[in-house]
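Hi C.,

You asked whether I'd gotten around to modeling the 269-residue construct. I have! Everything is below, sequence then structure, no commentary in between.
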Amino acid sequence: MNARGELSAVVCGIGLLGPGLVDWPSAAAVLAGKHPYQRAPTCAPAPALLPPAERRRTGETVRLALAAGLQALEGTRTDPEGLATVFTSSGGDGAICHEICSTLATDQRDISPTRFHNSVHNAASGYWSIAMHSMAPSTALCAYDGSFAAGLLEALTQALARAAPVLLVAYETVYPEPLHAQRPLCDAFALALLLDPRPTEGACARLQAQLVQESADTLEDPALERLRAGVPAARSLPLLRPIARGERGRVVLDYLGPLRLAVTVTPCP
C-alpha cells in the first residue's frame, strides 16, 4: 500500500471467457476498438487437467472458472501448485441450486452427494486445487453485484501481505427459470487476473486501487454495456479497456452501497 492508501500490483496474466469473447486476445481486440463486438453463446471447455471422474462431475460454473484461470497462467512462469487464489462470484452454480430446489419440491427429496458438493460456493476453488495439485491458500467470496471489486480488493491485499502472486478468478453463470426471473443475469462470463505486488518481467499493466464515492464507469458500446450491466463479473470490462489499449487511465468500478473502487491503470514498459 502506498502513501495515498492505494493497493497496488502488476497484472502478469489475463484469462477471459464470455459471450463472443473466447479469450483475452480476442476480447482485447474488441475493447481496443480493433474489431466490432459480436455476441455469441459462451462456451466453457472441459477441464482437461482434472482426473476423468472429477471432470465428469463438473458443471458449467467450474469449467468456466478453471478455463479462465488456466488462460491467465499461459506463458507465465508461475507455479500453480504454490499459487494463492481468490474466487469470487455473486451466486455460484445457479444450475445446481435449481436442481436441488426442484428435487426438494418433490416427494423424493434425496440429493446426490455430487450435486451437494457442487452447490457449495467454493466448489470452483476446490476443483482448481485438485487440478493443480495445490495446497496453497484459497478464498471464495461473494458480494452480490460488487463481487468483482470485492475479489480484486481481496486479491490485491493478499498479494501485498504475502509478497507473492495471487490469482483472481471472477465468474458467473445464468440461473434457469424460475430463479432467472428473480436474478436475470444475461450470460456466463469469467475473468482471471494474475496479480503480483513485485515488478515482474512480462507484466502488462500496474493497478492502483482505492475506495471512493463516485459514479461507476460505463462503456460506450451498447452491446458491451449491456454485458457489463447484466453480469456482475463483467463489471470488470471498464478496467480491461485501458489494459487492452495500452493506455494509462482511471476507472471506477461498482462495489457496495455508496462505495466504488477506483483503479488507476498504468502500462508496464
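If it helps when you're writing up: The two ends are 21 Å apart (CA to CA).

Thanks,
B.
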